[in-house]
Write a structure and sequence with these properties.
single chain; 465 residues; mainly alpha; 17 helices; globular
Length: 465
């Protein structure tokens, strides 16, 4: 066999491995996204049947605690032993959590399953990021993030009705069990690819660019702080105040140990990218949580029409993610992120205007949300690409965990802020003021994210600075 024949076969084998890896990764992202959406649909029924309404908030808070903690663990492991073991472990842990929750006979068992699902989800999300950095060529990474974004958004179209149908037809248990086949098939597709594509991790602790691993105590502190802040908005009186104060103190102590240097001062480069991601995610999710409620309460729309606004926004997300990966879209990477932030701010500002001005037609809300989704598609994929570009091979795991932490914390904190504004203003009975102020505040947060992008510095699409 000639050298040229061997080379051709090697190239073909690698292409096949990459295709299998891409399909397997996307299937697992679909599984996680579907589980997230489906559980929100089925949880009210599950909590009622298990007489566990008092545990309801914990089913979401414990998932967040597990995910934030394991995100840091995955970053440490990926830099030390490579992405394969954290990825496969995450899949196994996620399936274990699904089995425990799906077979629950009491609410304590269900929320324990949710905690374990969160641990698996954090491992998977960070390991997938490092996998893309290691297994894909630099020119292919934007396209790969388009696939992953599409895989994350697709369940938004079918997740709620499928989960409702499963719950009504066979019970809420099936919502958890239905995800397992996707995870198993995705894992089987990944296995052969890992053997061919895995790159040995750096072995020298003194290698250039090496950072100290993120401390696990800080990860635990931030995870508990985030859950405490989330629960603070659901408590009244001194209990809520104590949770709020404790959560803030814990974040101030723990977060700096998990982020790049100069994060608090929005330092140039990585710190600016990571804080942009947190602010933008917070603005989008903080607005998204209340758009359907605004359309139902203020405009008296049915749930189907109100939810359609979010579905249209998902189309915008996929479009933005697709555009950022096109070779002919020659805008600098940092400016793509800025454009994404501006688009999200415009979309949220448009819906805030519709809330303030009740004579404007309700369908304009869907059009405005397209701008928000489009901006998220541009910026979410691009922030991931830029973090990879600015990270050495020795710090891909740590910086990936910082990005994912910022994303999750931003979403949790600003949803809490939105909830606080809603609670304070809704009691007045003035719905235009309530929803308009809330959405305008989230638009302002997106503007802050846009300002933070100005500190990133020039990052071109060919990854040169």
């Amino acid at each position: 066999m000639t050298n040229s024949t061997l080379l051709a076969r090697t190239v073909a084998d690698r292409a096949q491995s990459t295709r299998s890896l891409t399909l397997g990764l996307c299937m697992n992202i679909v599984a996680i996204a579907f589980e997230s959406i489906a559980v929100a649909t089925a949880m009210p029924v599950a909590a009622r049947e298990l007489n566990g309404i008092g545990w309801y908030a914990w089913s979401f808070s414990l998932f967040l605690i597990g995910m934030l903690f394991s995100t840091v663990v995955a970053g440490r492991l990926s830099d030390r032993v490579g992405f394969a073991k954290p990825l496969l472990t995450g899949l196994a842990v996620f399936v274990l959590g699904l089995v425990i929750a799906g077979s629950a006979v009491q609410m304590a068992q269900l929320v324990t399953g949710r905690l374990i699902q969160g641990l698996g989800s954090g491992l998977i999300n960070t390991a997938v990021f490092v996998c893309v950095a290691v297994a894909y060529r630099e020119a292919d990474r934007p396209q790969m993030f388009t696939y992953l974004s599409t895989a994350w958004v697709l369940p938004a179209f079918v997740g709620p009705p499928v989960a409702a149908w499963l719950t009504q037809r066979w019970g809420w248990h099936c919502v958890f069990f239905s995800v397992i086949p996707l995870v198993v098939v995705g894992g089987l597709l990944i296995l052969p690819s890992l053997r061919q594509l895995m790159v040995p991790p750096p072995t020298s602790a003194a290698a250039p660019g090496t950072l100290q691993p993120a401390p696990l105590w800080a990860a635990g502190l931030v995870a508990v702080a985030a859950a405490g802040l989330q629960l603070a908005g659901q408590q009244l009186g001194w209990t809520g105040a104590a949770l709020l104060l404790g959560g803030i103190v814990a974040l101030v102590v723990g977060l700096p140990h998990l982020m790049p240097a100069c994060f608090g001062r929005v330092g140039r480069g990585l710190p600016a990218v990571i804080i942009t991601r947190g602010l933008l995610s917070g603005a989008f999710v903080g607005g998204e949580a209340f758009v359907p409620l605004m359309l139902v309460e203020q405009r008296q729309l049915g749930l189907v029409l109100a939810g359609a606004a979010l579905t249209v926004g998902s189309i915008g997300w996929m479009t933005g993610s697709w555009l950022q990966s096109r070779p002919w879209f020659s805008v600098r990477r940092d400016r793509i992120i800025t454009l994404g932030c501006v688009s999200v701010a415009v979309g949220l500002g448009g819906i805030a205007t519709i809330a303030f001005v009740s004579t404007l037609p309700y369908w304009l809300a869907g059009m405005s949300w397209v701008f928000s989704g489009f901006g998220m598609g541009l910026a979410t994929s691009s922030t991931a690409v830029v973090v990879m570009t600015l990270s050495s091979e020795h710090t891909q795991g740590r910086n990936a965990s910082s990005l994912n932490l910022s994303d999750a914390l931003g979403a949790g904190l600003f949803v809490g802020l939105s909830g606080t504004l809603f609670t304070a203003l809704h009691a007045t009975g003035q719905l235009p003021l309530t929803f308009g102020t809330l959405l305008l505040t989230m638009s302002a947060v997106a503007v802050l994210a846009g300002l933070a992008t100005l500190r990133i510095g020039a990052v071109t699409n060919d990854a040169t600075r």
